[in-house]
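One chain is below:
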Amino acid sequence: MATAASCYYHPAAVRGNPSSPSLGLRPSQSKVVVISGGGGSRWWLRRRRGEGMVSRGSSSSRARARPALFSPVAIEWQECSAEIEVDVPCSVAYQCYSERETIPQWMPFISTVEILEDKPDLSRWTLKYAILGQDVKFSWLARNMTPTKNQKIHWRSLEGLPNRGAVRFFPKSPSSCRVQLTVAYEVPEILTPVASALKPFLEGLLFNGLERFVAYAKQQYSKTLQS
């Protein structure tokens, strides 16, 4: 039976002394990562690279160094990609993909995309899907980077599930193009045991999403021609 899990990231809130020398961590430098699932919740502190370490210097400095109470969590990033040909002009495919709130209509594992009214370059995403026996739900806030019209859309997450990616559009003829989607993400702890199988699984999902995107783009293009 699949188990449910959700992942939340937030700045570490160390009770008591906000700059505890015993931990060598400050709330502004660290994060608490909480994984909740069928077996309850688990948490740990994740340090930024270099925290709890001393720089190379005198032997006295090394002698005073104490081992950190919390070791850095091993972080694994994966990159997935998929591409497909679409019988619509580059400009049409680009415009269809630019409409972020419509993405859940054709990307199977994205359940919601909400654009912030006061900051249209920011959007909140929710992923909800059964992945390799795990019912997972993740969310993140993403910033759309400056696009290249009819050529490239790219983004990176600011909080939540760490990820970044790009969609590139390559013209093949005046009425067709190739769409290439690349997504990189930090493998969530709950999915670490199946990390080796995760990439091909997600690349299959991305390709299925692009197949549905083809149908969506063709439909939108047809409406444009009829109007």
Residues 55 and 145 are 35 Å apart (CA to CA).
